Amino acid sequence: MKGRVIKSTGSWYEVDLGEQVLSTRLKGKFKQDKIKLTNPIAVGDWVEIEKEENQETAVIKKILPRENYVIRKSTRKQHFSHIIASNLDQAMLVITMKNPRTSLGFIDRFLVSIESFRIPGLLVINKMDLMDGEQAEEWLTDIHEIYEPLGYQVVGVSALMEKNLADFFKPYLEGRTTLIAGHSGVGKSTLLNALVPEAKQSTQEVSAYTTKGLHTTTFAELFKLNYPGSLIDTPGIKEFGILDIEEEELSHYFPEMRAYLGECKYNNCKHVNEPGCVVLQKLEEGYIHPYRYQSYINMLHEEDSHR
Ligand code: GDP
Ligand code: ZN
After folding, report:
1. Residue 182 Cβ contacting ligand 1 at under 6 Å
2. Which region holds residue 213: left if phi is over 0, alpha if psi is between -120 and 50, else beta?
3. From ligand 2's centre to the CA of 51, what distance in Å?
């Protein structure tokens, strides 16, 4: 039988078979890819399972090849990584201008990491009801002008005011598996609870956990929407790792720079101050947004400091 892993809590994995959700476990060791993983099975994985004699539980026989995944470095084990979720059609970053303010730098880091995982991105501006005045106007214009031409969809909403969020999001979510991320306080749970009522229980469990000062390790979870499609919540995960991106590679994850790569005079150009750099020329000509270029430089320097 084939199913999808919707929740993983250590040694048990909940697998959705469509009609039924079964608790499953792994027997034996699974061969891993080249990377060392702390978790052999991730939320979003498609697996083949076999029911055990009691018919209530099952054993995972096979993990089907992953189309993609997001990963971060393990916090507990050096040189190990943790797969957060797999088989994603897109990743949605919820951002706000106020309470809290999401910085453009944070958005860019998020987009670079999902580009590196080859996952399309969608920006959802929440708390639109708080947006008035000139400053808000400018911020909104910036977000649309910077990100839309790069191929990222930008949607504005007020999760508190919008009466039917499920319908509102249908054009973006239907038929897809979407990972949802964002700073704490931007309204992720509000959105999630409106889109999948049964998520409520889960998000409360997580916060109850953390207030007790127990493990703050939280788990991703997949929720099915009322229409085809699902959302993967990643509580407590602010950033995905930008794993081992080489300096020369970083510009590949900026779509506006990608177009010109290979045209620079030096093929190991980092686009900082090299002669004959086409990226710098395009920046000058206004084809690359100065904020984005600034984020690129900041990330380049951050990578430096990790060496
Ligand atoms: P999370 O930490 O991302 O899960 O954020 P929550 O969903 O817990 O929301 C944080 C706070 O923002 C709560 O007090 C929500 O009521 C509030 N909030 C959520 N959406 C909106 C919105 O559209 N407008 C306003 N003004 N507040 C919102
Ligand atoms: Zn260059």
Report:
1. yes
2. left
3. 56
